[in-house]
Amino acid sequence: MEPLKLEVWSDIACPWCYVGKRRLEGALERFAPGAEIRWRSFELNPASPREVDLSVSYAERLASKYRVPKAQADLMIARMTETAAADGLPFRFDIIRPGNTFDAHRLIHLAKDRGLQGEMKESFLRAYLCEGERIGDPETLARIAKDVGLDDDDIQSVLGTDAYAKDVRADEEEAGRIGIQGVPFFLVDRRFGVSGAQPVDTLLSVLERAARERTPEIIEGAFCGPDGC
To answer: Which residues 6+ apart lie within 8 Å of 106 measured at CB?
Structure first.
């Protein structure tokens, strides 16, 4: 059987997207048929500048966004950090440097054409959420992309033009048509959708169901075959 087609809409500036990626990997480790993954673009804040004002802490920005006291935002961050740690991800919200993710998404599309999309996605998520890298800074993105294995001329060609901009927008427009309102969002074989960073067992169950429904159920009875009736 051909591998399942698995599309994942997510944003680099999304803690749950990294957690969801790890949980998906956990499910795939237990799913023998395997799946062909394609990472789709989704910007949580397309209007974000390349880098936000770093004099305002992540907790203060979170408190403002959700209109809650900073103490509550601190608790939200602590819970997210604890959740991520349980999935092996050392989130560092104390050094995080938010920014616009559009160029990062364009480079992920370049990486797809070079057979390195999964590696690029992983590196950007880790750089932003765990290492305090400037996810909206072209020089930072170029360095990370080069470390993944992309050619420097290709990287500069993308960052210096609008290359892959239409691909990013096409992913986002398709998300709108499908009805995706938040990420991560997993679409299996264009038939089964899963919203959010679900537990490993839930993701595995969806993969197994999709695989089962690819194969018709056969009820055996009397029949004729090559060796007779």
So the answer is: 158, 159, 163, 164, 165, 167, 168
Dump pLDDT digits (tens) for 84-112: 999 999 999 999 999 999 999 999 999 99
The answer to whether 136 touches 99, Cβ cutoff 8 Å, is yes
Distance from chain centroid for Cα 2: 23
Q: How many CB atoms lie within 10 A of CB 98?
A: 20
Q: How many CB atoms lie within 10 A of CB 209?
A: 13
pTM score, two decimals? Answer: 0.92
Task: Give 139-185 pLDDT, tens digit per residue.
Answer: 999 999 999 999 999 999 999 999 999 999 999 999 999 999 999 99
- Residue 222 CA to residue 211 CA, distance in Å, equals 27
